[in-house]
Amino acid sequence: MSYLNKILYKILKVLPRSIVKLFSKRYIAGFNFDETIAICKNLNKQGFELTLDILGEHTKTKDQAILITGKYKDILRSINKNNIKANISIKPTHIGYDITPDLFEKNLSDLALTANQYSNFIRIDMENSTTTSGTLSAYDKLHKKHANIGIVLQAYLFRTFEDLKERQNDNLNFRLCKGIYKESNKICFQNKNEINTNYLKILEYALSNRIYVGIATHDEHLLSESYKLIKNLDVSPDDFEFQALYGVPLDKWHKKHMENNYKVRLYLPFGDDWYLYSLRRIKENPNIAKYVIRNLFKH
Ligand code: FDA
User: Fold this and answer.
1) What is the pTM of this model?
2) How far apart are CA 80 and CA 253, in angstroms?
3) CA-CA distance, 253 to 137, in Å (whole number)?
4) Measured in angstroms, how far is the CA atom of residue 113 from the centroid of ligand 1?
């Protein structure tokens, strides 16, 4: 992160939320689901598939966790009713992991049943490393009963390659991302080149072994290397998809993927709880300065 970007990010963090909201709009599909449906339909028309995420994490009470699980069920119904090409992505701590991992597992199981009714699929997002083992163990148990669940693996964690190999015979469908949380150097690569090397090692293993993988990155080097692997290993487009976050400028690559008949899925977050997610995205934007100034003038 450049020095100027670091300063701007620190300033943004202390500004009133109403101002940060102005900058968050690029990354958030809407503040409620009704606002989001039109965007979903439009993106589907452009050829994108979607994964919908209700913003929020670290839910504090059981009642709230059950309420949010209910909202996800409503979204699954609405996706079906509106004929939208989308599945859902869920954060474990949003549906109860912090209260007890058992509550998370129960809510996830309910969601898998609802998703099954609509022939849909749920992806469990991966949060910080205190939740990795618990999330994978809930997945391991539930996946035996529900085939329509997938996980996320983070290339920055030392453990990830083994986590993948342990689950490879299990009809696995996983998203591969770099990982966003601040983690200790005892468990995680810190350097970008090391993370990228591990990313490609994991990706090559998945593609060589026909493990379905969502290639989730905006890093042009990783995207180019993914293309080489797909070509050299002669991988069928049925065995992978590309994934990107809504609002991150990647038009040239999306166009290229679609020309190659590769599936592209956008991660579309929406809802009231936009603040922390937006800060993460703004922090990752290498052009924060330009982005902030342009938005200030626009508004
Ligand atoms: P990197 O951060 O190196 O960015 C590469 C380039 O992309 C940048 O140089 C810039 O040009 C552009 N870029 C990236 N972010 C930008 C932004 N916000 N605005 C403008 N330009 C930007 N993490 C996690 O821990 N658990 C999870 O479950 C998920 N889920 C997930 C789903 C999907 C679909 C994606 C794409 C990513 C995630 N992530 C995630 C986040 C992921 O771990 C990672 O933090 C970000 O994708 C950024 O890493 P990149 O691979 O894009 O590389």
Assistant:
1) 0.94
2) 29
3) 35
4) 30
